[in-house]
Amino acid sequence: MKARLLGDILAGIDYASGDEVAGVEVSSITADSRLVQPGSLFVAVVGVNVNGHDYLRQAVTAGAGAVVINEDSGAGDLGVPQIKVADTGAVLGKLAAAFYGNPAERMTVIGITGTNGKTTCTYLLEEILVEAGGSPGVIGTVNFRFGGICRESSHTTPDPVQLQGLLAEMVDAGVSHVIMEVSSHALEQGRVAGINFDIALFTNLSREHLDFHGDMERYFDSKTRLFTRYLKKNGLAVIVSEGGGSWGARLYEILKAEGTKQIMTCGKGQMIDSLNEQLSLAGITMEVTMGGEKKQFASPLVGAFNIRNILGVLGVAQGLDVPVPVMRRAIEQCSGAPGRMEMVQVPGVDHPKIIVDYAHTPDALENVLATIKPLTQGRLMVVFGCGGDRDRGKRPLMGAIAVQYADVAIATSDNPRTEDPDQILTEIEAGMKKSGGRRVEVDFLKGQGKEYLVIASRQQAIAGAINLAKRNDVVLISGKGHEDYQLTRSGKVHFDDRLEAKQELEKVWGKAAGAA
User: Fold this and answer.
1) Which of 205, 231, 314, 441 has a CB 3.0–4.6 Å from the CB of 235, allowing a cystine?
2) pLDDT per position as a tens digit, 271-280
3) What's the pLDDT tens digit per position in 33-92?
4) Measured in Å, how far apart are the chain's first and last C-alpha atoms?
């Protein structure tokens, strides 16, 4: 990246400085003092755990050519130009966008937010855009991918500097459309500042991240910022709505009152609606009403919640003027995101159906179990847990849901982080008991409903479920999806639900098939 003049980077920023800054050359921009190089612009951001102002002198020693600080920080003489602003965190994204030449302005940018469904929607929309002849780039939970490049992501939405650098790379690679998962954390922390979205999709809202937001109202407020603060004035808001007092309906009313956005609603009784849905473990067929006409669609995705995901994506595609036949072909061939209702199979072996899904919130777990239950010929079994150092209130809720829907529920560890796994399981079990669940040991399991086991080892829990399962049973392994690791007190260790399940299937059912 070539050096830029600080005056150009500061254009449009309200700041004060006692130094002459316009002609200062900036070689890079960062909010991490460890990444400062000679000529860097260091932005001292006040974070949750770290205050960048405490590292100003380290940044200058490392070669920072100028620093951006809060006007009330009281920083003394540092020997380099100081730019004072009201809130460094609020301007970091704009500064990064300016440094990288405002890359988002040269592509169509689509933001997707909501508690569940974001990742699946990115895969569906990516397939549609490729089928339409576009060159999409995706920024999401699973990875960043564009132009044949694929990188693992550490956050759903990257920090502002990384994000703008990534967008600049996409421009250079010829990306036409950017599809971005936008998390509530990113919206709360201003990570997407400097980006004006052309289209924004709202999938749903349910309990999640309350350890960060505090309550559902503040969580909802964070989500609405994508539409009220970052969506272009004449941009398109696509809202998956269940009508009535749903969160989608509330967002619709907010935007309708604002009166500056185009709005499209999707769902039952909405502008884009579905009829005559047929659901099975093989996928979905349905009629979709678009523009007053009924169109037939089929998808290999499983579950009623995926109907809503598809409808939302069709709303975005319609806003992009994608022809319906292109939409139909793309929906039919998109198998969805890794670890989202993903079937684990051993070729040539007739074994129980094993499904791995990312569902790690009460709403997501209930949606998945409610979808699978009527499609299951035998027993429905679920292996699930709750993450440590996160919202503790959802633990008993998820325990109750597991017992309510599954014939056999197995509570286990799911990224315990710094917490004691047994304590997390105790809190989950409280909900299982309250919902009428009966704890049993493996030898006394009857599989007649509301029975549950507690197995702290996730490996043993998955193996136990597959050993207990009969040919017509369905085992849902929920919570981690595409993740190939466990976060524990000992650090990050390799663990992949799909791999564990496949190995156990081969061991138990492959042997049975060979014997037959």
Assistant:
1) 231
2) 999 999 999 9
3) 999 999 999 999 998 789 999 999 999 999 999 999 999 988 888 999 999 999 999 999
4) 64
Task: Tell me how many domains the chain contains.
Answer: 3
Which residue matches tokens 């780039």?
A: 137
Are both 90 and 113 inside the same structural domain? no
For the record, the structure tokens of 236 come out as: 């398109």
The residue whose two tokens read 């039952």 is 268
H, E, C per residue of 65-119: CEEEEECCCCCCCCCCCEEEECCHHHHHHHHHHHHCCCHHHHCEEEEEECCCCHH
Residue where a domain stops, chosen among 304, 333, 362: 333
Do both 417 and 358 map to the same domain? yes
Collapse the DSSP code of 193 into the 3-class scheme (helix H, G, I; strand E, B; otherwise coil) and give the result. Answer: coil
Question: Can you tell me whether residue 2 is helix, strand or coil?
Answer: coil
Tell me the chain's radius of gyration from C-alpha atoms.
25
On whether both 78 and 155 belong to a single domain, the answer is no
pTM of the model: 0.88
8 Å CB contact between 309 and 323 = no
**Structural domain for 284, as ranges:** 103-333
Same structural domain for residues 360 and 501? Answer: yes
* Cα 177 to Cα 171: distance, rounded to the nearest angstrom: 10
Pairing of strands 25-26, 438-439: unpaired
CATH of the domain at 440: 3.90.190.20
| Contact (Cβ atoms closer than 8 angstroms) between residue 381 and residue 468 | yes
Among the candidates 302, 333, 364, a domain finishes at 333
CA distances from 50 to 32, 77, 356 (A): 10, 22, 36
